[in-house]
Amino acid sequence: PVDHKMVNFISLLLISATSAAVSKEAVLGPESEYKTMYFTQPVDHINRNPGTFQVKALVRTGDPDAPMFVYTGNEGPIEEFFRMTGWLTEYLGPKYNATVAFIEHRYYGESQISPFTWDYLDSTQALWDYADITRQLKPKPSTPVIAIGGSYGGMLSAFFRIKFPHIVDGAIASSAPVIMAFNDGKGYSDIVSLDYKQVDKNCPENIESGFNILKNLATRPMTYYALEGIFKPCQSITSQVDIYQLEDWITNAIMTIAQYNYPYEANVYGELPGYPVNVSCSIMAEYTAPPSNVWRTLSGLYEIANMFYNSTGD
After folding, report:
1. Range of the domain at 219
2. Lowest mean pLDDT among 6-10, 14-18, 26-30, 209-213
3. Is the same domain home to 224 and 96?
4. Mean pLDDT of 224-233
5. In Å, what is the CA distance from 160 to each residue of 124, 130, 169, 190?
6. Where does the signal sequence lie (predicted)?
7. pLDDT (tens digit, 9 = 90+) per residue, 144-161?
8. How much of the chain is in helix, strand and coil states, percent to nearest 5?
9. What's the CA gap between 220 and 223, in Å, rounded?
10. Does 43 fall in a domain?
11. Phi then psi for 25, rounded to 5 degrees?
12. Prediction pTM value
């Protein structure tokens, strides 16, 4: 049966998200309100093989009569997602005086299994970690629990609600690619292209022109030295495979920038400026403007990648 009160509550949370202004300072979060805790978890929840390890969580203790929010950790140290979730740390938590838990995903950050083995790096095992820790932190049996996550963490929030409906009352799965396997695999690329096109209609074409140049130069070894001068790789470019890896390196930057196109500066994989898609399009517009040539266009791609990978300029 549908819990209409819970549906209305989650709808209210989503509406509040659109009206809550979050500054750069807010993204860093009120760290003084949170304490670091470690929870002993079975290495294997499913087969109950012997062995335990510690899962890290950042926890805010709230009013026992308030709701509880659980951030289902992604593929990285939990502090990274804590700092990027100002809506939860700065707005929802204080607004409802809620208990909030950011739970780290096993195998990431400090939540490591020893002796090391890949056997238990599994989303189902992670969900069991979240369920057990949520049960331990839940202030009262009647406390409503809302799972929150983004991207892969958003998928986990949705799965958390589905697998443990007796623990989780609702879930907010932001940008969760739960149906990605059922399309042609181009959905994410299409959205990224649209993001750049909405900033500058010529931006996707400007970026594509750079990749077309790289593709053409891949078959011309005499150009590899010049490419090294532009992109400054750690190792020499000696083959077409190296060019393909360079393309992947640039593509990852361009696609991830679209994912983290926040209106404020954010510490993602380094310090990104506010609206980095806009900045990227401005770079490509400058480097492809007349009089342009292949090397200036490629330099534009380099500047975008450098903004993403090397924000400190080191």
Report:
1. 187-309
2. 26-30
3. no
4. 95
5. 9, 8, 10, 28
6. 1-20
7. 999 999 989 999 999 999
8. 50, 15, 35
9. 6
10. yes
11. -60, -35
12. 0.73
